[in-house]
Amino acid sequence: MEPDFWKSRLSALEPIVLTGFAAEQVRILEKSGRTAFDITNEGAPAGGEAIAEVRTLLESVRANPVQPLFRLSVHTFEEVFTQKEGCDVLLALMQLMGGSGFASITVHSDQPSRDWSTTEERLRFLRQKLQNSNVYFEMVAPFGEFGQTQMDSLFDMGLRVKFAAGWTRGCSPNGTLPIHFETLRAFSEFGFPTVIEWYAHAGNLAHFEKQIPDLLGANLNSGFSLPLVSENPYYQFGSDYPALPESLDYCRTLARVSKLHPHYDEVFSPLVELALLVRDGGWNYELDIPTRINIFVDTNGQIKVFRQSPALALKWITISEVLSKPSEALRDSFLELVKTEWTWSKMPYCCECQWRYICGGIGACADGPATIKELETICDYRKLFLEHFSTLRAPDRVFGVPEKP
Amino acid sequence: MKAMNKTAAAPRFLPLPEFSTKSRGKGGCSTGGGCSGCSTVGVLEPMLSTKTEEIQTDVPFANRRLNLDATPSEGTFVSVIDLDLTVACNLRCTYCFKEKWNEHMEDQVAFDALLWLLHASGPVNEVFVNFMGGEPLIRFKLIQRIVPFGVRRAWQMGKKMQFGMTTNGTLVTDKVVEFWKKWGMGFHTSIDGTPEIQDRNRPTVGGHGSSKLVENAVPKILSVRPGTTARSTVVPDSAGSLVESYRYFRALGYTNIAFVSGGPSRWDEKSNEVFAQQFERLGDMLITEFREGRFVSLKGVDDAISGVVRNQRPQHSCGAGRGMVLLDIHGDIWPCHPWNKASEQSWRIGNIYEHFDQLARAELDQRCQTDLLEQDCANCVANKFCGGGCPAENLEETGRVYRRHPNACAHTRVWARVGQRVHDTLLQEKNPLFLNYYYRKEAVAA
After folding, report:
1. Of B68, B149, B152, the CB nearest to A221
2. What is the per-residue pLDDT for B26?
3. CA-CA to B72 of 20 to 30 Å: which in A142, B92, B106, B289?
């Protein structure tokens, strides 16, 4: 039962071959994660017949007309969202994939206060115009006040709130964003599951673990996330910004926290996304693009696409161009960009990784601003947990065990 | 059993050691099943032992954290909780089984209790919270906060949380009614009967009658929920006035009426006979109501008719300790409402901040409780609907949860006989209202 045996014979299909998670067993994962086969020693098929069978099953994933649903996440700043033009752009972007798949709009802010009535007005506008009811709205901010008057209708319109913590624009590189516990409590008592979005950097990782009990107390067990600070749209790579944590520290923290607090795994980013990628598959063969793509609408009118970090985003189009293009042309332009500019050959860090079709890649092009060490931090935890979740999922078929009648 | 944490400021069993109630019942039990009902009866009498378990704590109250692992890991998921928002009450009912002092549930515990329920219910999507006390409306401000919270939070988790309340009715205002209406709450009103009985059995803390207060509240309550139950606890002294009280309840507008005897050991042959005679007359009145086109549900008789129609014995008396538990003001988990006394520590299932002890509820969390009953039910006239009575009452009266007091059986058999007669009469007459309610309900259930 040599993994190399299977790797070499199925190399054209680039399967992921996992060993060591169960005795005398090999798991073969289709490269996008859509399907998994276990092959046991006892009674395992041998020779060309078995290889042909596995190959057929792997190939069938590509040809399957039912491909994983596409998840489009559009991120923007509150300054864009509160402008009518900004909302029109968000509306146009939500139509990119038609009515299928899931889409989300995440509005980021570094400000504790806001005019909630404007938020309510904009959200109502989008809700009325959007045809896809799968779109959800999320606000991520270090909230410092609770707009009691508007909350009923905001809740009813499906607003989700995440409490930004850890770092945001304006914090020192080693600093930790203070949390307004009273507001956190107010949101949570109202009934919002107010997840803490703790942006992890080298200087705040240990502090986060100490704070967890208090955070869960204040947000009434709504849970927390621990994304890297590089996922914060205010973040840039450079010395004026926080350093990413050491890869090993980050991986260990994620593992430790998820074990200690298993009740929040439904909201615990980034692990929840990785688990879903393993469950649903990371690649849409019909469109030949990753199943998850993020779009970032910047305040300067630029619209970019990114995979893991807005700071590594690729320029796509401008707000005015989006508003002037018909939706089909916009879709074609988007797909062309993703297929031509986002090819593995232009991403040296990911191009040989066996996990890239599940992971979707980290989106770092050759001349990007991040250092290799930073890219390792962005990448390592993904590989680690993709492998972990891949071993946890149930196989679609087991070779070597008689099939149940 | 490991003691739970609490602060010195929040003593668990406060010193009412000189008194205990001899009997108890269960409030807010939503499962019916021929139990003796949520009765509450007895006479204050000296306890045999004043020794209470002293609970120590190392963790200040404010530092406690909800333990989401303190939920069932096996057995029945908990989907119904009775929530003691306070132990304080503005009435001093002569038979009340709850120990009283002026302590409320901490606000945080109330929020945590709802979160606990959302997790303890596992895959069950509909969960229920019944506010109890003391008088829960003493905590109306808290109720106004936790009900919207629970509804919204449950919705975010793909669940539905419904709320109810057992209230003595004296604190019901227009504001309360509006709130109930907005959030779709259900409730029971504890009301014993005619003003004379109500004032005698349910005086205020100051010793005044409470009937006027309740009378003022009833129209408000019924305007929101016409089907609200008037729940009367019957003691031997009031057994002879059931008919009179029935007329009074009907005049107030109630159509759901529960006369539930409590404290079986307080009853004797003579009072049992009075109880039976009164119920025979109530049966006649019920038949007349149906003949005249008015639907009335009379607890016990209604259970018995449903049993006759169903023709199959229920497997459980109620959900106590299985799908239903009580969370007391400290977050302690008990099988149900009357079950949180110092002398019953072995029945404490756990605490939402600490642990959930599956073993403590094992005796109750049985697939079929009626198989475990310790009396000969095979030939009992009530065996189509009786699930073995209130386990808490059984425990109090006989020391065993599956052994009923003979008087409790006697009262249930009264319901059975009257129910059978009402059923047979109205069925023979092909009473459309009766058929539509009982037989269509059965058809739908089937």
Report:
1. B68
2. 31
3. B106
CB A196 within 8 A of CB A219: yes
Domain that holds residue B392: 75-445
* B52 within some domain: no
pLDDT tens figures, A119-148: 999 999 999 998 767 788 999 999 999 988
With an 8 Å Cβ cutoff, are B156 and A213 in contact?
A: no
Structure tokens at B147: 């009900």
Mean of pLDDT values over A191-198: 96
Listed ranges A103-112, B12-21, B375-384; the one with the highest mean pLDDT: A103-112
* CB nearest A190 (choices: B68, B115, B149): B149
Outline which parts of chain A fall under CATH 3.20.20. 71-280
Would B29 be classed as within a structural domain? no
Number of domains chain B contains: 1
Comparing CB atoms, the residue among B68, B112, B145 nearest residue A263 is B68
B91-113 in b/e form (b: 16+ CB < 10 A) is bebbbbbbbbeebbbbebbbbbb
Chain B residues in contact with A191 by the CB 8 A cut-off are 148-153, 155-156
Asked if residue B37 belongs to a domain, the reply is no
CATH number at residue B425: 3.20.20.70
ipTM, two decimals:
0.90
Q: What CATH number has the domain spanning A71-280?
A: 3.20.20
Contact B323/B400 with Cβ under 8 angstroms? no
| A271 Cα to chain B: minimum distance (Å) | 19
pLDDT at B187: 81
